[in-house]
Write a structure and sequence with these properties.
The protein is mainly beta and 670 residues long. The protein folds into four domains: 153 residues, Chondroitinase Ac, Chain A, domain 3; 169 residues, no CATH class; 91 residues, Immunoglobulins (Immunoglobulin-like); 179 residues. Helices cover 13% and strands 35% of the residues. The protein contains eight helices and 40 strands. A six-stranded antiparallel beta sheet has the order 1-4-5-11-7-8. Strand 28 and strand 29 form a beta hairpin. The two termini are 17 Å apart. It comes from Desulfotalea psychrophila.
């Protein structure tokens, strides 16, 4: 069974012009970090402090499955550390090891807690849903700032989601399986030039606008986090890079930086929607603590960090900026994506211990980007930018066929690759002769889907879809909207052509046809004695499945063909909508097309005989073809399903349940 992630996102715009974020997808190798420190350093990351990881002191192991669970250290100085794994973080039982480590580090600012913990969930490097780490702390030591230790030993700040200074308990979250620690922030005056980030060198040159229909609320979160990632991993100079015009086939030019900003924002939109409400609801996290958190992170990592600006009364009008320096009066210098190449500041009032309003935003909160794991790595976006971005549109390349090709079989599997433009394409649809065929697109851009062609020239239309910042699937432009792709099929025309598609991935619907003799086509008996044929059994979602009766086959004129759909298995994914299209008299002047839609909520893999009934079945239509197409109409050819319950007697043997199951498993294995 596939693990599905249902994410409910809150649409939160980054105001003035908009909002966005992004960070690298570090995948820690769970081996001692001091062995990994020999690898090459990144331009600015190496300027921060490094942790030296030692030996395990206390180790606890526990099996945790898909429903989640807890594991706790009960001895030693890390006693009371609890790791909470939420439901859906794992899709199977995993042996989780929680250890205290003898590692050490020397902070530039603050006091090391003398605690390093190691979370190892088998072979996993990250979690599907964020885990929570709850740690006790002594408030007399200061305010604890939690860090994720990446694969090179450098610190990345984690997101605090709960803190109780009276009880001395802090909870932070992470998607990463790795080492973690925390540093107590003090009230010492920091050194100037905490990082080498400069807005005119390291921010975007473009101004923060949204990209319809993907990021209409703005891209400040994506711009802020990508600017930090680039500074961290690639060095200075983002401002003057990726400034070339990139032409869209549908018209107009955009800058390379525009594509980066949109892609980065879409990659991290889940994090924005997940943590903005948590920050606004976080109790006990005073402005004094937030200021200390910012200073501690800048001092110890030497890398800028993201600030979330908001008003307590509403989620609307939120904004993300980059904090990169702080002076002796605790004024924080920021890069604001709304104002490229401008130095702005957020003032901390040392008398009231509160942040003063900035551009109408009354509250300031730091975002722990070391917590996050993004949909698309920024490394991939950077590589595409280095290659010049072929287009802001999605670029669809068909690898299985060439345009204008003549094929010998009307049932064709079209494969290809999608190069992403301003969005990660998740779904592709091909519309051919009145039928829409759908397929998911892999993270690498590959796709494969089966279609049925008409005789003669076919002009399929390709539609690409991506998720916007609110997790809605929207259509994005692609190159094949400007280029006509054709395929020719000289196959025999069909008297009846039935196509089944559905809209739920990882589900299994089956198309059945029962002919006038009682013979049938199903996944376990595809071809009737008359030659009617089911082409394919799609067990993984969407379809299509086709049944064809051609003029060259034996056609039972003026007799009934019954079309049915069965929900074999939902694989745990619930109900699905289906569409059935019926084409009659192909290639004649009376060619007709009719569509039928419905919804099946029940599934039953053992109720799959051709004449079985139940909530997992849908009777679609009974077709009575007229021998002469001249003067024929779909109204005459189509008849309603009998209301008296009478059905033809099945005269063809039905395989045993064991044989039918074997057929389904064989198909799935292929």
């Amino acid at each position: 069974m596939k693990l599905r992630y249902l994410v409910q996102l809150v649409t939160i715009s980054c105001c003035f012009f908009a909002g966005g974020l992004s960070v690298a997808n570090d995948k820690p190798v769970l081996t001692p970090i001091n062995m990994l420190l020999l690898s090459g350093n990144h331009p600015h990351e190496s300027e921060g402090i490094k942790a030296q990881v030692g030996d395990s002191i206390e180790t606890i192991q526990k099996i945790i499955g898909s429903t989640g669970g807890e594991i706790e250290i009960t001895q030693g100085s890390a006693a009371g550390v609890i790791v909470t794994v939420p439901p859906g973080a794992f899709n199977e039982d995993i042996s989780v090891t929680l250890s205290q480590n003898s590692g050490s580090l020397s902070p530039n600012e603050g006091v090391f807690s003398d605690i390093v913990i190691d979370i190892t969930p088998g072979e996993l490097t990250h979690f599907a849903n964020p885990i929570q780490i709850t740690v006790p702390f002594n408030s007399s030591n200061g305010f604890p700032v939690p860090y994720y230790i990446n694969e090179k030993g450098y610190l990345k700040p984690c997101q605090i989601v709960n803190i109780d200074t009276n009880a001395g308990i802090m909870t932070f979250e992470t998607y990463h399986a790795s080492f973690f620690t925390w540093i107590y922030s003090l009230t010492t005056i920091p050194r100037e030039d905490l990082t080498k980030f400069k807005t005119g060198d390291d921010g975007f040159r473009i101004t923060n606008y949204g990209t319809a229909p993907l990021t209409t609320g703005g891209e400040c979160f994506g711009m802020s986090t990508f600017a930090i990632w680039y500074f961290d991993k690639k060095g200075s100079g983002l401002y003057d890079k990726y400034w070339s015009n990139i032409s869209a086939c549908t018209g107009g030019d955009v800058k390379g930086q525009d594509i980066i900003a949109t892609r980065a924002h879409l990659s991290v939109s889940r994090q924005w929607s997940l943590y903005v409400p948590k920050l606004q609801q976080l109790q006990g996290f005073s402005d004094l603590m937030r200021m200390g958190w910012i200073r501690n992170v800048l001092s110890n990592t030497k890398i800028p960090t993201v600030l979330y600006l908001y008003n307590n009364s509403s989620h609307n009008g939120t904004h993300a900026v980059v904090a990169y320096d702080m002076n002796e009066l605790n004024t924080t210098y920021i890069y604001d994506p709304n104002y490229p190449n401008s130095t702005k500041s957020v003032v901390f009032n040392n008398s009231t211990h509160q942040f003063e309003s900035y551009n109408g935003y009354g509250s300031v909160a730091p975002l722990g980007t070391g917590t996050f794991f993004y949909k698309e790595s920024f490394e991939n976006i950077w590589k595409d930018a280095e290659n010049g971005f072929s287009s802001p549109d999605a670029t669809v390349e068909i690898t299985s066929h060439t345009s204008g090709e003549t094929v010998q079989d009307r049932n064709q599997t079209i494969t290809g690759d999608v190069t992403f433009g301003q969005a990660i394409v998740e779904k592709i649809e091909i519309y051919v002769n009145g039928v829409t065929y759908s397929s998911t697109v892999s993270s690498s851009g590959s796709f494969s889907l089966s279609v049925t062609l008409d005789s003669g020239e076919n002009k399929p239309k390709f539609t690409t879809k991506a998720y916007d910042q609110a997790n809605n699937l929207v259509t994005v432009s692609n190159n094949l909207q400007c280029e006509q792709f054709t395929l020719n099929a000289p196959s025999d025309d069909a008297v009846i052509l039935v196509t089944l598609t559905w809209d739920k991935n990882d589900t299994d619907l089956d198309l059945y046809t029962i002919d006038p003799t009682g013979d049938y086509s199903a996944y376990y008996h595809k071809i009737t004695g008359d030659g009617g044929e089911l082409d394919y059994d799609d067990t993984n979602g969407y379809g299509p499945e086709h049944w064809t009766l051609q003029y060259s086959d034996t056609v039972r004129w003026d007799q009934d063909y019954r079309i049915r759909v069965h929900y074999y298995s939902d694989h745990g994914n619930g109900g699905t909508n289906y569409d059935v299209t019926v084409k009659l008299y192909e290639g004649t002047d009376k060619e007709s097309l009719q569509s039928f839609s419905g919804y099946l909520s029940s599934n039953n893999s053992s109720n799959d005989g051709p004449n079985d009934t139940g909530a997992d079945w849908a009777n679609i239509v009974t077709i009575r073809p007229v021998q002469t197409a001249t003067g024929a109409s779909f109204a005459r050819a189509k008849m309603s399903i009998s209301k008296d319950g009478s059905v033809p007697i099945i005269t063809v043997p039905v395989p045993s349940p064991a044989e039918r199951l074997e057929a389904k498993q064989h198909i799935h294995a292929e």
